[in-house]
Amino acid sequence: MKKAYYIYILLGLMLISCSEDFTDLAPISNRNEAEFYNTSNDFITAINSSYAGLQKDGVYGRSYWTMFEMRSENTDQGPDATGLARQFAEINTFDENPLNEQITAAWIDSFDVIANCNIVLDRIEQAEIDSSLKNRIKGEALFLRSLMYYHLAIAYGNIPLQIKPYVQGEELVQVSASEIYNQLINDLNIAEEALPESYSEGETGRATKGAAATLLAKVQLTLGQKSEAETVLRRIVNNYDYKLLDNYENIWGVENENNAESIFEVQFISGGIGQGSPFTNDFSPSAFLQTGSGFGRNRPTDALVNSYSEEDLRFEPSIGTSYINAEGETTLANYIKKYESEPQTEYDSDVNFIVFRYADVLLMLAEALRESPEAYGLINEVRNRAGLEDIDENSPGTFDEKLLHERQLELAFENHRWPDLRRFGAEREVFETAEEVVEPSDVRELFYIPQRELDINPNFTQNN
């Protein structure tokens, strides 16, 4: 299934590039752009470049897990803060500056995907191609652009809203995150209408109605639009063919990718073609790998480990513990197991990254419904799969505390934690009891705008 999918990603790599001032779309080989954007295959290849962009280090390859998991109390870098590890350690402890390579890569590579989508959306309007294919590609471009803008708005707040191809010399203006989200609501409604519910086997991995609706509901919850989000989430539950797998462990691993619980995954393909995923090498302890180095990055914190009860069936597939030898001393260290595989070469794993899955939908629906028997029923559906007993209004803690805790354990290491903390207004609160090195007073809601962007656009305002 995935081997057929790699063809369109490989073709898409031909289109990825960025300009000095703002991300731009380069022509394919020596073909003029005007000659290229004409046929159905031209536009399929063009949208493929945006899917390929999701693999990049600044997006799901590395920066997103650094900024949305390691920023929270879920994971840390560990004692090593030298070389590449310095970038992660700074983000983990809120000590990064605008020159940090990870926040810079996230900005550049996310806007690169956006720029590719803008080109597709602009050129396809006049293209004389099959109307159903045209609508589908427009839906894909709107979804992928929205996915990038959602992460950028969460991370940086006030950012440029670029929905047309960039014109050299054009002045970019920051807009509020709320303006970004409102644009996404409009775009994702169009995308959901245009996209299919599913694809044939060779096309598995493309955006679907369910993917657009899931992101739409997440944006609405971020804006506090719970009633609107409830409508969308019920549509996913009632109309789209997703379900919780019986066993949590069966979500993970190369053999389980694109399963019935999965709504959208970033597809990675091993085999020395430059599209393998780095997660196994980045997250695994070195002693566990037969090929290359394991760097033990993005380590689960003791605070997270201690949040699981002994009965929780999610712990074993999610977190492992190994003994590492550092400077002659043996130390116990936690590591992420969800992305384990057996890559034949370093940084060339076949394992995908799950962006959205059905458990998230059920927990978001509970959030939209607020405290009620139905909301607890949805939470308990997820808990029961994990081997845990039901909770209700009489269980300790507020409804938000219980729901946020359930999301933390169910969705650990899937890039939801920092957006969740911000949405629930708990980004400082968690560090009061997390036994981490971060003081709540040091917590910043937003990342710095990368310095290169301030240099290029002197009208930009830096985040505090």
How does this model look, in words?
This protein has 464 residues and is mostly helical. 46% of the residues lie in helices and 7% in strands. The protein is built from 20 helices and eight strands. It has helices spanning 2-12, 33-36, 40-53, 57-61, 63-70, 84-92, 101-124, 131-156, 177-194, 209-222, 226-239, 279-283, 302-305, 315-318, 358-369, 373-385, 399-410, 417-424, 430-433, 451-456; strands spanning 75-76, 159-160, 174-175, 262-266, 299-300, 319-326, 329-336, 353-357. A hairpin with a 2-residue loop joins strand 6 and strand 7. Helix 15 (358-369) packs antiparallel against helix 17 (399-410). The radius of gyration is 21 Å and the shape is globular. The termini are far apart.
Number of helices: 20
Rg is 21 Å
- Intertermini distance: 46 Å
H-E order: HHHHHEHHHEEHHHEHEHHEEEHHHHHH
Biggest sheet, spatial arrangement of strands = 1-5
Low-confidence stretches: 3-31
Short description:
With 464 residues, the protein is mainly α. Helices cover 46% and strands 7% of the residues. A hairpin with a 2-residue loop joins strand 6 and strand 7.
List the helices and strands and how they pair.
Blueprint: H1 2-12, H2 33-36, H3 40-53, H4 57-61, H5 63-70, E1 75-76, H6 84-92, H7 101-124, H8 131-156, E2 159-160, E3 174-175, H9 177-194, H10 209-222, H11 226-239, E4 262-266, H12 279-283, E5 299-300, H13 302-305, H14 315-318, E6 319-326, E7 329-336, E8 353-357, H15 358-369, H16 373-385, H17 399-410, H18 417-424, H19 430-433, H20 451-456
Antiparallel strand pairs: 1-5, 2-3, 4-8, 6-7
Helix pairs in contact: 1-3, 3-7, 3-8, 5-7, 7-8, 8-9, 8-10, 9-10, 10-11, 10-15, 11-15, 15-16, 15-17, 17-18
